[in-house]
Amino acid sequence: MLARVANNLFWMGRYIERSEHLARYLNVNYFSSLDAPSELSQSREFVLRSIMFMASNEVVDAKVKLKEKDVLYNIGLNIKEPYSIIYSFHSAHENARSSRDLLSTELFESLNTINHRIKNYDAKAFVKSGLYDFTSIVIKSTSELRSKVQGTLLHDDLYAVIMLGIYLERALQITRIINSKCSDATVEKLKDKIPQENGHLWATLLKCVSAYDMMRRLYKKTPKQNTTLEFLILNPQCPRSIKNCLSQMEKYVDILSKHHKIKTDSAAFLIKKLNAEFKYKLIDDIESDIEDFLSDLIDKLVFIGERLDEDYFKVTVYPIIKEKSVSSVQTQ
Amino acid sequence: MKNKIELPLFSSYEFNSNFYDELFSKNKKTREIYKRLFKLFSQYSVNEFNALNNRAKESFFNNGITFQVYNSNQVSEKIFPFDLFPRIINNKEWSTIEKGVLQRSKALNHFLWDVYHEQKIIKQGIVPLDLISSSENFLPQMVNLDPPEGIYNHVSGTDLIKHSDGNYYVLEDNIRCPSGVSYVVGNRAAVKHALFGVFNEYNAHTVVDYGSNLLDIMESVKPKGVDNPVCVVITPGVYNSAYYEHSFLAKQMGIELVEGQDLFVENDFVYKQTIYGPEKVDVIYRRIDDLFIDPLEFRKDSVLGVPGLFSVYKKGNVCLVNAPGTGVADDKAVYTYMPEIIKYYLDEDPILNNVQTYHCSRKNELSYVLDNIDKLVVKPVDESGGYGISIGNKLTKEEIQKVKETIMENPRKYIAQPIMALSTHPTYIEETQSFEPRHVDLRTFTLLGKDKDFVLKGGLSRVALSKGNLVVNSSQGGGSKDTWVLKK
Fold first, then answer.
1. Is the CB of B275 less than 8 angstroms away from the CB of A329?
2. ipTM of the complex
3. pTM of the predicted structure, to 2 decimals
């Protein structure tokens, strides 16, 4: 497989996954806040800041007053914002388009149809009444796309590259969502001085990553900080946990790395090392300084992404004339 | 004589006896071959057909069979106009067309070899020297270079029309990078989905075997010493108007679609950069024009090609499909010598008719052209895509004068032909919600390899969508139709 094409497909996987997490985070947080128990968690400003933090990875200046319609539009349909859902989906589509000869007709057709639908979504209707509808479309569509990836592509190194993209992005997004919710919890504790567990916040977190039902089935109790974090970070059976993502990444990087020797600084080595660290980790080891743990984990995942790029996707640039690209239009 | 038929979808169908209508004979009777199809179409109400037409358009859109249009601040995606009423060609007519286009491809291949080697045909005075020496598409780099297995034009697209006399004529041969075959397959799929029942009444040849035949042809011209050639398709990239076709062909053949940046040259071989390192490439179906394939040899400002590619080709370590420099033979001035070229190399009479052509480079013919511009089509010899064509009977006096002046500036650049009466075919016009006759041509697709050849049994019937227009090229906003070649 061409390195450039592999890179495109890796990012297609990442952007599909990213779209889903952005859409679900927006959907769950916004709607659960409408009748949230505490005054703070019901406050528009608090919810909008939390959503902005997760999407753009930046804390909005405290002096800035956020406008609800602007926030919703920017995260949903503003193609100029690189953190928006539409930007993410558009990027997935562009990456797929430049390697469409390798994708199944079924997968490309779905991606294309959904892209048209998202691209043409009416922005006015979206901020007025279409938030639930739009985010639901994105969530459903991304699962349709993953199922087409799994069901209509040959399970070879091309598939491994896409799945690596999907699981790396999932691990990153889930870590960031946990991070964002943990920081909400800290704020709530400080402001409301609530000594007891805030079940609503942890339930929202679980729903943000569609793990609530699974968690209830396993623990059969109202989610608490300790159990929620244990489930989302360390449970090997939950398809949304970090641990599960890491073992999937190891499985797929093995398909690529069997063609070469694994060096100590390679992506394959780093994935295996991180996976090994997770194998015997306990929630009690990490809960006390969860925020440090999460930010360290984000750094490690980002570095793995960079190493994957270095190991498999780098295209040597040969010294060709770097003038303005001349494109030819076919006329025959 | 103009008249109308009393059927909702055909209420705007105007007869014009100056043209051969593919559906109706001169006495307004449905032609035998179309009877069953016409019966089906006449059963649709306007609303039903509209819905069918919209669904077909939607499927092109969703499948991404589109091209992109760039406006100042946004990119929009468009489908190529497509018509659901298929064109039917009977087996007997087709067999002549098939033999005829193959004959032309073979003759052109001999001609190209000769032009870039001994130039016997010129020395013997059969075609004039200035035909070659003044051609912009003649590549001096190709002189005395032997392409693998002696094949230059592996892929040809020959454009034919049906004249008012009911005979096919060749309009031009395209042997650089002819496009359109992906739409043949796309159109067939759309017609099958929309009108599936009618296929029980007609046995049409399939069109999906083009890809596998193209791959066979590519493998047949592998460089010496290679057992299992690695073949790729090279594209200028996603922003090229024919990108859909490039990705379609790569997919059909199951080979990789590469861009210039994916390939590099080292030690006289071409490699692609894969996730596991470099891998040698042996045969390249290139959809990049000659001058862009290698910035070291041709246009220095090209970032689409591969630096050093041509030197590898010269050494025989890679095969380019089609060979560089084929453009010299699909020049419209060379076209006029096709009967002589066929006779000279194959010792056969041409199977397909050429349109009578006047060379503005010849004094007596030039004066005829200048006196009769209103009755002629004037074409530049080295342009493709329908650019620079003037059609005499559509011009004002001032425009005629302008054409005369343009010709006089460089007579060698122009040829003129009688205005050919392209046949008409029922085409759905959305504005009037009915079928109207529109002019069509037929692009055929021929492949030539070592001891192998192939003509796609079908083709792209291109339609000029505006009323009375005779230029059908898709670069000029033309549409297309599915084309059925019947088995019996």
1. no
2. 0.79
3. 0.86
